[in-house]
Structure formats: C-alpha cells, structure tokens
Fold this sequence. Notes:
The chain is α/β, with parallel strands linked by helices. The protein has helices at 62-84, 90-97, 104-122, 126-129, 148-160, 176-185, 228-233, 250-262, 281-294, 307-316, 366-372, and strands spanning 3-21, 24-38, 43-47, 136-138, 140-143, 165-169, 190-194, 218-219, 241-243, 269-273, 297-300, 327-329, 351-353, 373-380. An eight-stranded parallel sheet has the order 11-10-9-8-7-6-5-12. Strands 3-2-1-14 form a four-stranded antiparallel sheet. A two-stranded antiparallel ribbon has the order 4-13. Strand 1 and strand 2 (24-38) form a beta hairpin. 49% of the residues are buried. The site of 2-succinylbenzoate has 12 residues, from loops.
Amino acid sequence: MKIASVEVRQLTLELRAPFTTSFGSYTSFERPFVIVTTTDGRRGVGEAPVLSDPAYKPEADPPSVLASLQSFILPSVATVHAEHGGIESVASLRASYRWTKGAVFAKSAVEAAFWDLEAQEKQLPLWKLWGGERRSFPVGVSIGGKTVEQVLARADEAVGLGFTRLKVKIWPGFDAEPVQALRRRFPRIQLQVDANSSYNLSNWQALKGLDDLDLLLIEQPLFDDDIVEHSQIAPSFKTPICLDESIHSLRDAQAAMLLWERNDALDRLIINIKPPRVSGFDEAIAVAKACRAAGVKTWIGGMLDSAWGKAFNLNFNSLAEIDLPGDHFSPSGPYFKDDIIHGALAAPNGVYELSDRVSAGVDFDWERFGHASRLVYRQEF
Ligand code: OSB
Ligand code: MG
C-alpha cells in the first residue's frame, strides 16, 4: 500500500444520556481519528476510542493518543514506508511501530484505518477479512446509571427494545442494591456487572453478595493494572471473574490463563476483548484464538465508540471464537446525538446482522465528519 498522507482529526461526540462508571460521569468526548489516504485516492479511517481523561486506564485519553501518534507512531510508519516504498501489510505496519511500548489505543487507530483500506482493496467485508463466520448474533447493552431508579429505567428501556443481555456498572456502596433490583425485575435475563477497578483488597468481599444472583461475570473488580490479585480472589467466587483493563496483549491473556489454572479456577476466567485496548484487531484475533484453545470464554467490549468504531467491533463479533454477547449498544440504542455514519446501527430484538458490504458495512459520513472534526496533525508521505 502506498500512502500519500495521514491526518489526525478530532471530533466532539455528544452522548444522548450521561454515562456513569466507578470513575465518573461523561457527557461528551473529544475523539481522535486517523485518516490514511493512499496514492490511488482511497481513504481509510480508524478511531482511537478514548475517554476524556486517564481514569479508565493510562494512555486512554486524547492528549496521550495525540502525542504518541505525532511524535512516535506516525513518524515510524513514514520511515518504514520510505525504506520499502510502501507498507505491504498490517503485519509490516505493526512492525514499523513495535518499538514504541504501550500506546495501544493510538496504535489501534492506525491499524483500523489500514484494515479499512485493505477491505476496500480486496472488496471484502471486515468480518470476512478477519475469518469470521457468524453472520447474526445477540448483542448486549452497558448501563452506566447513577441511581437504582436510573439503572432500572434504562434496563426497562433496553429490555423493551429486545436486548437480552444487560451489563451494569457498580462500585463500592452501589453494588448489591442495583444488582438485586435488576435480578428481581428480570429473573432470567443474562446479567453481568462491571466494577472498573473500584474495589481493593480490603473491600472486595462485598462482591460475595452478588455471587448467588446468577451473574454471567464480575468484570475487573480490582486494580486496573492487576492480573495476579484477581487470580487470587477468583477461587472465592462461583461467578467467573472477567478481565478488561489489565489485558493489553496476547501475553497478558496467557498470563491470566496460567494464573487462573494454577488457582484451579480456569473454568471461571472470562476475557473482555476490546480490540483497541490490545493495540488492534490483529492482536485481538490472537487473543480470541488463544482463549478458545484454553476453553476461556471471551466477548467484545466497547469504549463508547462512535458508530464507525462499533461497526468494526460488530464485524469482529463474527469470529467463531467469541462466546458471549458484547457491549455494542446503549440501553436506548445509539450512544451519540450525532454520529459519523449515514443511518444508525440497529439490532432489532437485540440481534445484529452483518451485511456483505465492503469494509465495516456502513457508510462513513464524510460530509458531517469533514465539517464537525478539526485537523490536529497532518503528515505527507
Ligand atoms: O469498562 O467496559 C468498560 C465504557 C467506557 C470505558 C470503559 C467501559 C465502558 C463500557 C461501555 O462499559 C461499553 C460500550 O461501549 O458499549
Ligand atoms: Mg469494563
């Protein structure tokens, strides 16, 4: 692939309803996007779905993504491009910036733009390019509410729209009450909780109050960078513990599997695969395959991505290795007031169907994106 230029643009995305987690409430985001233009005039787009600050985890905020892209990642791509007269494949793209440690969200935006270009070149949908087979699957919603009433109202809305899997945000002091209330109202729905690293070694025992509620999983109860302590508490629960924040690579997933196995709890490990959190779809495929080989269940997480980013994740959900419904929709459907695709993503009765259309399978709204986004950086190749 011969690149003419790469742009980084930033777009304000306004949520339709505030989203509350253990680390705060969000109403809008300043989201970085990478646009790669080839010498034959094709454009590929990748989103870095970060929040406004590093409260979820380090390097998951706009300033760090922009700094990594401008100072290290894009100049490295340019150097390799000049040496080889182009970038041959996603593998050579990843090799060009491998020396840069971390920066998983920044890397994933560049990689996503490349997958978009590769799909266009081969005239294939992303799901086919990634070896996916499942055309239709149930999708879940994530509920980030501030009060029990708000959580129940959002759950009612989601169930009314046909969604059959709910995830609810919890934190110390806001756990047993909302989750028991949800379980009472929906005795048989697939229900899971996400603590976003808000418990510690002296209060995690409070989560035992959730162990009899027939939950699918308890997501990242302890520290954002921790695998070991999670593996130590896992045997105390019947409910599987799921890792999100602390998995950045295949190696992290392998470390988790090793530790859960040592603690005799491998049947209760689940991994939330967020492709941008593991530096892109290439690594995400490797994580999905390794987990499947070990019998560890996986599902696709989200970062309140734009509809463009969600469409990539939905394509990824087609892989046979993905077991559980992912976080793809808000309880009332789309997440944002104005988005960057024509039309909106929809999952009638909580089921999403992939099309045969090229790349992400949705139309990027270049006109709106052009008006609404701001150029932050441009590199000529
Ligand atoms: O921990 O899964 C998370 C949103 C932002 C940051 C972290 C998380 C979330 C969600 C929303 O739970 C999932 C989604 O995008 O649908
Ligand atoms: Mg999570």
